Amino acid sequence: MPEGVYTAPLKRPERVGEDWLEPAQRSYTADENAIWDELFARQMEVLPGRACNAFLQGLERLDLGRGGVPDFGRLSDELGALTGWSVVPVPMLIPDHVFFWHLANRRFPAGNFIRTRETFDYIQEPDVFHDVFGHVPMLTDPTYADYMQEYGRAGWKAMRYNRLKSLGALYWYTVEFGLVMEGGEPKVYGAGILSGPAEAVFALEGQSPNRIMLNVDRVMRTDYVIDDLQPTYFVIESFEDLYHQTVERDFDRLYRGLGAGFTYANMAVIDVDDVLHRGTLEYHLRGGRGSGATPV
Ligand SMILES: C[C@H](O)[C@H](O)[C@H]1CNc2nc(N)[nH]c(=O)c2N1
Ligand SMILES: N[C@@H](Cc1ccccc1)C(=O)O
Ligand SMILES: [Fe+2]
């Protein structure tokens, strides 16, 4: 049996080509634009003082709160002038190799659709609010912008070693759920935290989750869940620190040394960890999402 898990290929809609790009960004109804505005307002009650400076500055520089779902053309012009990135519309999750190819060319593929009121608090598939509100402001930071491009380039190497799941764990614990030290305290830069209502408070102030300094070798061996709050958050010193630990390091040896599966549970604290906060794990031990446990 080959290593890894078989996943059926994503079905490509007829209107998109091999690049998976939509011919044009959708236009949104008044109600859909109102959903953007409500989501935006709700996040802004939580994020000042919790999100990192790069994110808050990026939001302002791109003026994402001007009302309604932002126009990708306008966003791309403004972002292009800052760091050379653009935002391109895609229908849904796209295949890994296509995702990597866009990132390697400084194009951020953003979901075209917006969540409905039924799925206001939680969606499994990334929508335009997660992708544009959560990810795009961070791309105004030059070091972070370079990291994302290098991550795209790194994808193909991981595929050759059959270690995409490990690289996926790194993405998960940095780009989606990462924390960064600022003024002696962790702040949020992970898009998965930034685009949802409850996780910023849980990640930063919760007693339950572990907060551990990022160690790439360890994180790439760590399992992750995609459908609940995280039991562990990994913290970087700065975006330069992230860059040193990843881009400026050759992963060939690391990939050869990694096993096929993950070694560490997502709740584990291990000997090598530089622990900022050792979590009680109460939320997850009580059963997590769906169990009625409060995220504390
Ligand atoms: C491992 C890989 O980086 C990841 O799963 C990719 C796959 N395809 C994607 N496609 C879209 N549209 N957005 C994403 O964040 C991703 N993530
Ligand atoms: N330096 C890594 C590339 C990389 C960049 C950014 C993130 C992850 C990996 C390699 O040699 O493969
Ligand atoms: Fe994301």
Task: Describe what this molecule looks like in 3D.
It is a single chain. With 296 residues, the chain is an alpha/beta fold. The protein has 13 helices and 7 strands. A 5-stranded mixed beta sheet has the order 4-3-6-5-7. Strands 1-2 form a two-stranded parallel sheet. Helix 4 packs antiparallel against helix 6, helix 6 packs antiparallel against helix 7 (164-176) and helix 6 (142-160) packs parallel to helix 11. The chain starts with 29 loop residues before the first helix and ends in an 11-residue tail after the last helix. Residues 150-151, 154, 157, 170, 246-247, 249-251 line the site of phenylalanine. Belongs to the biopterin-dependent aromatic amino acid hydroxylase family. It catalyses: (6R)-L-erythro-5,6,7,8-tetrahydrobiopterin + L-phenylalanine + O2 = (4aS,6R)-4a-hydroxy-L-erythro-5,6,7,8-tetrahydrobiopterin + L-tyrosine.
Main attributes?
alpha/beta; binds 5,6,7,8-tetrahydrobiopterin; binds phenylalanine; binds fe (ii) ion; EC 1.14.16.1; oxidoreductase; phenylalanine 4-monooxygenase activity; Phenylalanine-4-hydroxylase
Describe the secondary-structure layout:
Blueprint: H1 30-46, H2 53-61, H3 72-83, E1 86-90, H4 96-104, E2 107-111, H5 128-135, H6 142-160, H7 164-176, E3 179-182, E4 185-188, H8 191-194, H9 199-205, E5 210-213, H10 216-219, E6 232-236, H11 239-246, H12 252-257, E7 275-277, H13 282-285
Parallel strand pairs: 1-2, 3-6, 5-6
Antiparallel strand pairs: 3-4, 5-7
Helix pairs in contact: 4-6, 6-7, 6-11
The chain binds 5,6,7,8-tetrahydrobiopterin, phenylalanine and fe (ii) ion (FE2).
